[in-house]
Amino acid sequence: MPGSTCGHSGCEASCKVRYCGPTSHPMSHHAASAAFGVKQVWAASVIAGLAVVLTGFIAFSSAQAHEQQQADARSQIVRGDILRELNRINERLQTLEASVQALQQ
């Protein structure tokens, strides 16, 4: 095929192959369909990844809130114990002050 630039057999100086008729839509080709499918897979994987991150964030927030509630409950119990001890110390101090005043008279 000397002189043929198109790659068809029988074309010497210029291409003699002409196509007249309907052409297929680009989406009917397998390569285009595969590329479109890959695009959908990437979108689905991004959405699934975001869903996993969001679920993890919600679970972490819930666990952290639960732990904070437990810490608040423990601190209130400790605070109540401290107040009871202070009341007992105050009562003993008042008893001792009354005893000292009785001894001084």
Description:
The protein is mainly alpha-helical. The mean pLDDT is 80. It contains 1 helix and no strands. Helix content is 71%, strand content 0%. It is rod-shaped and about 140 Å long. It has one domain. The chain crosses the membrane at residues 41-60. Keywords: Membrane, Transmembrane, Transmembrane helix.
What labels describe this entry?
mainly alpha
Secondary structure layout:
Elements: H1 30-104
Keywords: Membrane, Transmembrane, Transmembrane helix
Transmembrane segments: 41-60
Short overview:
With 105 residues, the chain is mostly helical. The protein has one helix at residues 30-104. It is rod-shaped.
SSE order, one letter for each helix or strand:
H
Low-confidence stretches: none
**Tally of domains:** 1
Form type: rod-shaped
Keywords: Membrane, Transmembrane, Transmembrane helix
